[in-house]
Amino acid sequence: MKKLLAIGIIAILGCGSYVWSQTDQPAKPFTAGVNLGTDVLATGPVDPATGARTPESWTQIGFQPDLAFGKFGIGLNLTLHFQIYPVNQPDQAVAIYPGDWVPNYDGNKKGIIDLYLPKILYVRYGLKGVDPLFVKVGAIGDLSLGNGFIMGNYSNMSFFPDTRITGIDFGLDGTMFQFPYVGFEFLTGNLAQIDVIGAHVLTRPMIWSDIPIIKNLQVGLTFVTDTKPGLYAATTSTKNISVYGLDASVPVLSNPAVSMAAFTEAAVEPNGSSGFMLGVGGKLISFFTYGLQLRLMGAGFIPTYFDANYDIYRAAKADYMALIPSGSGFAGWFASIGTSILGDKIVANASLDGPIAAAATDTSQTAYPHARAVAHLGEGLLPGIYADASYEKYYLGKKYGFFPDLVDPTDAIVGLAINYKTGSSVLTLMYNAKWLNNSWKVSSSLQASLKF
Q1: H-helix or E-strand containing 367?
Q2: What is the DSSP string of 14-76?
Q3: Which 8-state DSSP code applies to residue 273?
Q4: Which of 224, 329, 376, 388 is most enclosed, with most CB atoms within 10 A?
Q5: For residue 222, is pLDDT > 50?
Q6: What pTM, to 2 d.p., does this model score?
Q7: What is the rounded average pLDDT for all residues in the chain?
């Protein structure tokens, strides 16, 4: 009887996918997908040594409807995890994981908002940098405010695919109302927790002028705060972590072959330390990007405090901000180079930053060079294959030396997503590895999806 029930469930899922894929659907704007995969969840018996539940493998089935209308789009992510012949429940043919839909299940501390908000895969209107009004709700990646000296490449996807977090990025420019003097951007990394909140207000005070270069001067104010620095790990800090600053930028060269903008930003952090940055950036030969910065920082200052892996290191950073700064100020640098070719089918960027002088007794991230590299292979270049990869490394030179540390796994964060598409079917492998507490924390997911 158990075998018949199990076979029946598999057959229903398989037939359902076939029917959905063969049924005539509206040409656009509605599409949908069905995916089947395997996830590892901490749902097994409690480990006496650690007090945590042991990992178990669960089959995942998901339905992802997607509606697009003009500049507006919305996608949902409706998933269900199950086990056939579960080891811990041998008297059942199928076990359903309640944590997908039951708030606060088994002490996971996910309330109604934390649990149900991520079911919204995304909501969007317009595009940042293109439309005067844009809104994006969902996963946030590679987001910067101002010139990136306070918040640069910020992401709320540090715990993906294990945990999906929903944030919002909203922007409004005065050009929408024929008033190009002002613009505004607001974000929060987690709508369920309202923890990381950021805002940037800009003005173009000389837009009325006909003077070249000066006409396009932009001056802005940035404010970012974390209301819950101990959300993911214990911290000695009991106060909000708030950073604010002033920025300015002006285009120097603007033509298809070569472009350059000059920019600067100053910031103050909660330990009272301040920093200043002066830089240039742009494009060379249309498809090479570059950036250079000189940084002058007071003792205890952390440039780009809210970075790509902020959620992982937020507790450690908050502890560092609680200390009274010691030592003297220092100078630092930043350099980046990248490319985007074949209609963005190949995109790559690498950046490196660090102090000009060698580290002394300071053990913070700022005292050592830091490297970040990202790459994107778009769909259509290789038959059926497209992918994204990232590598970030902290504390370069602390352990063995700069170049040995660059390839050493200690203090590294690795991300990889590989997709293989054939017809309407897509096979996706996701892999994330983080170096935490002197060991690797690895999460992975393998999914097969069908778009129709």
Answers
A1: none
A2: HHHHHHHHHS---SSSEEEEEEEEEEEEEEEEEPTTTSSEEEEEEEEEEEEEEEEETTEEEEE
A3: -
A4: 224
A5: yes
A6: 0.81
A7: 84
